[in-house]
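Team,

Forwarding the record for the chain on the shared tracking sheet. I've put the sequence and predicted structure together so nobody has to dig through attachments.
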Amino acid sequence: MAPTPVALPISSTASILPSPESPIDASTPVQEIPVLIVGAGPVGLLEAVLLSKMGIRIRIIDREPHISPFSRAQGTLPRTLELLAMIGDGFIDKLFAQGKPLQEASFYYGSRPRCTIPLVPSGVSRYEQPLFMEQERLSKVLAKELEDMGVPIEFGWELVDTEVVESAEDTHVKTVIRQSVAPEGEEQEIRVIRSEYLIAADGGRSTVRHKVNIMFPGRTLPHKNVMLDGIIDTDLELKDAMSIIGVNQKTLLFFAMSDNIYRVVLEMEDFSPDEDLDKINRELTIEDFERHVRECLHPGTKFNVIETQWLTCIRFNERRAERYIHKDRIFLAGDSAHVHSPAGGQGMNTGLLDAYNLAWKLALVLNKLAPPCLLQSYQEERVPMADRAIALSSMLLAGNSDKGVVRHYFKMLLLMVAPLLVYINPTVIPRMVNMLDIRYPVNIINLPHKTQAQPKDEIHQVGARAPDGPLLLVRPFSVSEDIFSADNDAATSPKEQRVYVQELTVGVGRFHILVLVGNSLSDLTSFKTREAELAQHIQEHLLQWCTRWHYTLSPDDKDSQLFKIHTIATGITSESHGNGLLAQRAQGNGRLFWDNSAEVHASYGVPAQAKACRSADDMEQQGAIVVIRPDSYIGFRVLGVGKGAWADVSDYFQTVLA
């Protein structure tokens, strides 16, 4: 979905500050800021939103005069949507108002439809269908979020030089910026920014990466594609997403955009060694594009371009920065760190996950809640994800563009058997493409229990994505308001309301603790005793943690609590549960939820059937406590919900936090 810019050759590091390019002196204005973000594309904007919501002052600059109207990326994948939903305050609804879920993919041979494959969710996530929304629209939603927080985006400013200044007394980043376009009759203004950290989200041609001399090894691919965004007139039955195997064995793709605009991507012959991309784009015409498209279709098929927004030839690179962190102060994210072909839609989404991974760690360090060594886990976790995205996009691109008669007829065979394959397995988008299978390695933030063995299934282990699943909120029986709604299942009790795990685990930069107790609370003869013991553990540890570690956010922030606890039980609810201590708790303070189908317990690898309660020691042997990181991955898990298990969770936080 995201055509990757051509990477510039690596140049040696120029003399930094001052230099002929950056004529600074004692009169040059200097601003101090905790974080400077270079690049106001989706990755930089998301980083700015997240850090600002966690009380970190930022400055974000971009050399362009405004958000680019050209949308390289078109889709936001399920895992990205899950993380964006964690921002809360209806942010995910703003995105869905600007786009639409992709519900099916259509496949053609020439002008003739072969099959349409519905994108049937498997239940793994509430966002299993990618959201079709142009990059420009996502950027504008993020920009509006910053505007509402009073954080300006400084367009028209470019980075000239940057370096990490190290001394015995202080370490900081010193950056020279200037106006990329000066007002008529005026010289370009130059300023110096002194920041604790700098985040480079300035794309595949990253100036930051060049200035700090981080190598960008990889390869330039031979594939040539021409892409058009515009209004078209055709007698093809246009769908939201169409893949056409041309009668000339070329591949042709159609994607619906907003305002009746379609993106058309046309496979061409590979680049020859002496071809120049800039020259191709200068000579590219609509007439040539129309002719090449018609050659893919059956004779007589109408295809005309009525209006053009963007016509360009694309060349793909597969490159990854040799490191993401420079002297513990400068971080690469998004295309400045990795580029590859758009196959599989991994580009922008990988960058957005970079931003989320880095933001909460940086905020914890800047808020003096975690040691600086936590930031090393950004590189440890995200470099393998870039390698994964490059390998996946390379595999998909190779499969789509392989030449030859044998490969052509193999594609035709797949078109014929695809509906049968969907009938056998309706989940047609693999978790790998959706990024739902990402698992981070054991490190400073993903800590296995010291004595308990990790679960055999990797999806339950530390570093894995925190699964979603439906729950019922146990409402206090003293509440009189009508809680029935159209969204609730008809079988839901009047005192229970449906909610999902990922609806509980919202909030930027926050740890969520799931206390999965199985059916240990369903025995009414022991309910009060067991609930009282559990409530005491929750109250004691929540008070202890929130007293020691807490955010200092803006004065209008109503909830700066770093920890939220949610109790999840199986079994059958009764009036006693609605009158219990946990049902009376505010959400996040241990409030009780019912895992009616035991689906959530199974998702976290926790037995739903607890042992019979004979003594307080039984609490140590049943259920589990799972710590979910602020970016919705499992950080720690311990079997048992008794005193020992809570002590282990406290030890985890004392290890991870400052």
